[in-house]
Amino acid sequence: MKAVVVERGASRPTLLDVPDPEPDAGEVLLRTLRVGIDGTDHEVVRGNHGGYPPGDDYQILGHEAVAVVEDANGTDLDAGQLVVPTVRRPAGESNRYFERSEPDMAPDGQYVERGIVGAHGYMSEFFTSHPDFLVPVPDSFAEHGFLVEPVSNSEKAFEHAFAARSAFEWDPESALVLGNGPLGLLTLAMLETESSPFERTYCLGRRDRPDPTVDVIERLGGTYVDSRETAVDSVADAYEPMDFVYEATGYAKHAFETVDALAPNGVGALLGIPNDWEFEVDGGRLHRELVLENKALFGSVNSNARQYEAAKDRLGAFPDWFFDAFVTDVYAPENVEGAFETGDDVIKTVVEFDAP
Amino acid sequence: MKAVVVERGASRPTLLDVPDPEPDAGEVLLRTLRVGIDGTDHEVVRGNHGGYPPGDDYQILGHEAVAVVEDANGTDLDAGQLVVPTVRRPAGESNRYFERSEPDMAPDGQYVERGIVGAHGYMSEFFTSHPDFLVPVPDSFAEHGFLVEPVSNSEKAFEHAFAARSAFEWDPESALVLGNGPLGLLTLAMLETESSPFERTYCLGRRDRPDPTVDVIERLGGTYVDSRETAVDSVADAYEPMDFVYEATGYAKHAFETVDALAPNGVGALLGIPNDWEFEVDGGRLHRELVLENKALFGSVNSNARQYEAAKDRLGAFPDWFFDAFVTDVYAPENVEGAFETGDDVIKTVVEFDAP
């Protein structure tokens, strides 16, 4: 079958002919429809994550997928059913995090991530999986169901943010998303759905108008904040202090500037994964502000099945126009290099193996 | 009546004769038994907090008190009843934070703090208060009831810590208290009560043995960590990664080193209030560790009536020996300067206005 891989030593995606996967007993065979590409895929291709699947000199890419059950292989699933696969699998034997259905909380060494580290991903004509790691989705999700995975990551961050503020009566109104990349825009769209408590949303980027991401921000109802004019630590003064800040830039200074952007009793969710970077901070002031204003900060990675379910509901509440504006290009596997090209006109790209 | 005050321009406590307070309608008159002294009192005396009560050139000190109702003044309280007063009062009109019984979450400008900023404290023979700000305690609390206030601050921090980890199944075992001052030792004692889930506790200080705080740490069942031998960011390697870190040093670098000390999925509570201090951090690494290991950090200040109630239960579960070891000196108001003297033999001092 055709698979999009990064080969050992390479730093770009290529199409490879690999053996068709055979489902083990208890596993199902899946036919891939679409696989989205995000920043993590770019990092895998650049070799930042490492960890090829055991015995292989290539890594099949892709962790944001929507697929059809091709062969239910005696499981409770039905052939023809649409599913979205989760990303983490136990490293070796199962462990308590997977037994609790909380793979997202497993520490380093207790998991592999399909398409990212230690296990093949979904960017191939077929893949196999145990049904425990497949979330059924309605047929209407054939086209954009690959977005369930990234949205589930933000659902987790929202859950943790509200949990962190659950010891008192928190009534958040303002939210700031740091980053106008795909995850930032998806999160802004989530903050703008009807069930969201946020009344005023902001999204930070560094683009000149006209720009498609600025258009999406404003059409969603958010305020675009140009970081070249308003730094994160000036947002509270220039706009308003933020009850919730969601960081999706991977820019390490934003983690610290988030403390300044927050309103009293606010909470900041960090999702970016920066490299080492030493710099100076006014640690005394940041520490004091956290304390005297009851502020909170937390990191969040990956997501669990419950959050995939929440993401399904959330995606159903997105406005129809969003998907067309957000998914800027659809590529055939043969043209996968194009799907990894970046530019101001590109928001989200997807590789299509089979028509939805 | 006699009151321990800091006068404008002074930087040490003095005994002053001030007018007896008169309860307004709806207020009660209280006779003070004992008032504990903590780091905040030292800061008030040094002038770090400022904010004298309107119209006065002196601030009556003290916010950790236990008192007897002298005149119930038509309220629901009974004369002779023992109470512990809370610290915050609305600045002017009441506001939503006080109406929700969450004065601890009120932002700057919406509260004054008795004995700290903008309102007289309890270090006087009598004081007045609305009953809403008085927590009844049993007669057995006459001697050590002044500890309800500091313990309530840690109850709040515990509540927020568990809330912050409530979106998943958190089963913490290890806890590290940063600081062997009075609040650190009280918190260690709390972590060692039977209802606490922590199986292994550690307390960081910088003292040579023999030392009374090290004795208390070890008698409680904790492990003493000498920060001169093991820095906070080495604790995970030297001992074990910590599920919970409680910072009570006010040393700003500890806020950042806490991230290193935490186990995956752990949470750090910051309670110290440092001054400005610029220093270098590996912000990229800290940011990345927060994210990839799902770590959380929050600041916490003050406490509410629910947490005072929890503190009452908690204090009842402390071992008897603790109080004698912890309260190292009791001073008459006339000798208050002694109560503010520090030294390696001093843990907690208290000013006694009337015999418990």
From TrEMBL, chains A, B:
Catalysed reaction(s) here are: D-glucose + NAD(+) = D-glucono-1,5-lactone + NADH + H(+); D-glucose + NADP(+) = D-glucono-1,5-lactone + NADPH + H(+)
Gene3D superfamilies reported in the protein's UniProt record: Medium-chain alcohol dehydrogenases, catalytic domain, NAD(P)-binding Rossmann-like Domain
Tell me, what is one Gene Ontology molecular-function annotation carried by this entry?
NADP+ binding
Q: Which GO terms describe its biological process?
A: non-phosphorylated glucose catabolic process
Keyword Metal-binding in annotation: yes
User: Which amino acids does the record list as binding substrate?
Assistant: 40, 113, 149, 153, 302
Domain named Glucose dehydrogenase C-terminal is located at 142-353
Which key words are in the record?
Answer: Carbohydrate metabolism, Metal-binding, NAD, NADP, Nucleotide-binding, Oxidoreductase, Zinc
Q: What residue stretches are annotated with the Alcohol dehydrogenase-like N-terminal domain?
A: 25-139
Would you tell me the protein name for this molecule? Answer: Glucose 1-dehydrogenase
